[in-house]
Specification:
DNA-bd_dom_put_sf, 3 helices, globular, 68 residues
Length: 68
């Protein structure tokens, strides 16, 4: 089910493969994140696209904390 998150018309849309490459995870992991509602997405014909801003927002907390 697509998220109801408002998207900017100028927001670049990424495929699962592009999002997975940026996050350093598999396409299956990106699909799981979509299905859980963690990453919003839009269907464009038969293709699924994820807003770049959503991928960057998801990645931000993952990279900021860390054990030293």
């Amino acid at each position: 089910m697509p998220s109801t998150t408002k998207l900017s018309p100028s927001d670049q849309m990424w495929s699962d493969k592009e999002a997975a490459a940026y996050l350093g995870v598999s396409c299956v992991t990106v699909r799981r994140l979509r299905y859980r509602g963690v990453l919003p997405y839009r269907k464009v014909g038969a293709a699924v696209r994820i807003p770049r801003s959503a991928v960057l927002a998801y990645a931000a907390p993952q990279t900021n904390g860390g054990a030293a």
